Amino acid sequence: MSTTNTNPGALTEAVFYILLSLLQPLHGYGIMQFVKEISQGRVELGPGTLYGALNTMLERGWIEYLPSADRKKEYIITARGRTVLADELDRLRELLRNGEELIGGQTRAASKDSQTLY
Amino acid sequence: MQRVKIRKLFIDFEAEEKWLNQKSAQGLQLIYYCFPTYVFTKGQPGEYIYRIELLDNLIGHPESQAYIEFLADTGVEFLASHVRWAYFRKKAVEGPFELYSDAASKITHYKRIITLTGVFCIINGFWAVNAFTRHLPGLTVVGLGNLTVMILTLSIILRSLRKIQSLKKEQALNE
To answer: Nearest to residue B123, comparing CAs of B146, B151, B157, B139?
Structure first.
């Protein structure tokens, strides 16, 4: 776990996946495609939302521009961005660990002698 | 290519957007807009999905240009602008088209709408009061016009505020 906390709260799903996608250089369309594929169609980024998120991340130094061969601007994660991702993974592991400990292997089809939790 | 021109005035951008998509379903695809005329071509019904957005800056501003360029990269075509209003479309075969996918960015857009609409609401309210207190026959008619616009803009503001409220409730549970 890193000692410096560059991000105090939880990342949104969209931001988490955008950072993940930018471990490699990508432009706007590439990010949208990557996130759609990796989430199996569950997370679809609106281009307006994506643009805003990218600008915020640029401001915070989590990502940066990369000069690319064609005119299109490409983005890539920075060292600070990688730290944010690592911290977020720690947080998610904590949630997962606690969740599995308490709910455990119980799936939606709950055991017959207990109430469904949701 | 056959062109169809329709002159129409809208105060409510959501009604305007709905109208453009209705036209698209009828086979009329918007290709250009210059206040107050909409220019359509005859194409496949439902070929394009249309969206209208209020930008932070005027179209010529580098920020707006960068945004439009970014959108173009994702397959979103910029058609026309009116002050800070931008008209976009995307091919329906490429899937559903929404500019904003999360509550936060939707709220930001509605706040922008409220601010702009608020200005028009107040100006028209002021003009209405001004017209009515002059007691000149011609001005009363004008004053009623101003009052109408004020009421319409007020209803847009209230509706947007309600939408922001429901989006915030959504945010309390999910992001």
So the answer is: B146
Residue B140's contacts (CB-CB under 8 Å, 6 or more residues apart) are B131, B132
Residue of B nearest to A43 (CA): B101
Do A22 and A39 meet the contact criterion of CB atoms below 8 Å apart? no
Judge contact between B160 and B168, C-beta under 8 A.
no
pLDDT digits (tens, 9 = 90+) for B126-144: 999 988 888 777 788 888 9
Cα first-last separation, chain B: 45
B102–A12 C-beta distance less than 8 A: yes
Give DSSP secondary structure letters for B72-130.
HHTTPEEEEEETTEEEEEEEGGG----S--SHHHHHHHHHHHHHHHHHHHHHHHHHHHH
**Whole-prediction pTM:** 0.86
Question: ipTM above 0.90?
Answer: no
- Which residues on B lie below 8 Å from A47 (Cβ)? 70-71, 74, 76, 99
